[in-house]
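2 proteins. here.
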Amino acid sequence: MHPAFAYTASRIGVLAVTAGVLYLLGLRDPFLLLVASFLVSGVASYVLLSKQRDALSARITKNR
């Protein structure tokens, strides 16, 4: 699988899971849910998706 697709799909998955968890925890306002989901998933993606990010970086630098 292409690293860009894997990383993007993983980021979207982390965002969806984060939104679902925050919704279940009681955050019902759509705007606040979206903002909080982006913030929390960004931090989570930084930690959880380091291998995918490194693979994408390596692929990009290899093609230059």
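next one coming up
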Amino acid sequence: MSDAQSSPSASGLATFFNDLADAARTVALTHFRSGVDFERKQDLTPVTIADQTIEQELRRMIGMRFPRHGICGEETGLTPGERFTWYLDPIDGTKSFISGMPLFGTLIALVDEEEDRVAAGMIDMPALGERWYGTAEGTTLNERPARVSRATRLEQAQIYTSSPDFFSPDDWARYDALSRKAMFRRFGGDCYLYGLLASGHCDLVVEASLKSFDFMALVPVIEGAGGVIRDWDGKALTRHSDGRVVAAANEALLEQALAFLG
């Protein structure tokens, strides 16, 4: 696939990801802490004009650069394409965004459907000025290499999740049992937690109820930093995954977590 409108070079792809994230960041910061109104979608999750404007702009930019690619966005759904599909979460952590907390981000991923792999992923934190970009070649934070921690024992691990509200009662019981075996547990952060893991600041992240646009970008960021990310059955994440996700600094920690989650 040498056609520039189908398969970009590695350097060209990184540049385009940054262009997308820059555009999203500009819109997000324009509306952040501005008293922006929000509506509730059918699933009762909130959505703001920032979510909608960011996705519209990213779709426009992708359509101009890669007109044959598909796009799956949180706000607009799936537009099918050829081979490659972009997964977009314009504001991951909309509740944080609405309440003035800076722990919201934009998630962007490019999936090669033919090879069934996530070619590249980005976590951008507009209010914090932090940006992780991951590929098979590695992960960077603000263009510097990012690496996971060396913790291998659950008792030494710092474990995070965004909120107990995202778990079913049975899933929460599993997470509660797991997290109480860790060194300590913390709550809140949405996609920022995975950036922290990729940079070695925590060791495990376990969540449920995620959608494909929530986790596709996380895969290359975590794996490029030397970590692992799977579903609760230990299987690789795909667009068909059930939304229960566990990310770990290494296989040893993953296996210890799966013993509780499976």
